[in-house]
Design a protein that fits this description.
By secondary structure, this protein is mainly alpha-helical. It is 60% helix and 5% strand. The strands form 3 sheets. Strands 1-4-5 form a 3-stranded mixed sheet. A two-stranded antiparallel sheet has the order 2-3.
Amino acid sequence: MPAYYVHHLDPFLIRFTESWGIRWYGLAYLVAFLVGYWLGRHLSKRGLCDLAPGQVGDFVFGGAFFGVILGGRIGYMIFYNFSGFLADPLVFFRIQEGGMSAHGGILGLALYSLWFARRHRLSWLNLGDSLVVVAPIGLFLGRLANFINGELYGRVTSVPWAVQFPKELYEVPRDMTSRALAEAATINPAWNNIEAVVAASISSPELRNRLAGILNPRHPSQIYEAALEGGLLFATLWILRTRFRLRDGALTAVFFIGYALLRSFGEFFREPDAPLTGALTRGQVLSVGLILLGVGFWVASRKTKLTDPRHG
């Protein structure tokens, strides 16, 4: 049996207390918004966006809160934890416990950009085209943060680059958790629950060595998704936006369809985090809706003006 990497990255960049500090996940959001602001101003100055450079900051700030954060949280509650929300509505505000939906964030941004465009009398389709160019940056950083957190991991595999994630102990059969607790207790009797074992695995090489014989090797699907939904999609959209003549709305269509297809492909390597619908994961089912939206934007774009980057 090959020796696999046992995940032990700390989700905190800096800890002030045991459970409070600066998290990589929050930092990923902050960097994504800053990069989005910089790229948005670049597109605006080149004449590829109807936003004036001075409006970019307002749009990015509002999109960050109302679109990404609020939309992502609402989407998670609806798509992945609706029963939990009904049982305890206050769980919505406990963001520190995790739970954001990429599909919800995308739809939230779409609605926010529609409101912003109407309020400032801008073309929604043109605004959307500039927005979707930078959106994959957030997806890329968010997936990297998922990997650092050791969450949303992949399916069991035997590929050489597989990773063993201690957080799977929250979901595996009781016999595996019992073995993990028994091994942990021989090192430190205080590690007598799964939360303590997962936390201790970050700093204890001995515990990780014991867990290596218990945990399943899994695809690091977060890295796959970061490369596909983030890197590949961003490169494609950036080239299309800056080098080709496109009608307003066409790039938004490419984003919706491209994200849906890449996300659906990535789901084949990711452990399902919700009940399947037939043979489809929840992410794949939601992606069907995004493809339909993309087709709608493509049809709408046939009647809009052309944006030519060569004249920017």
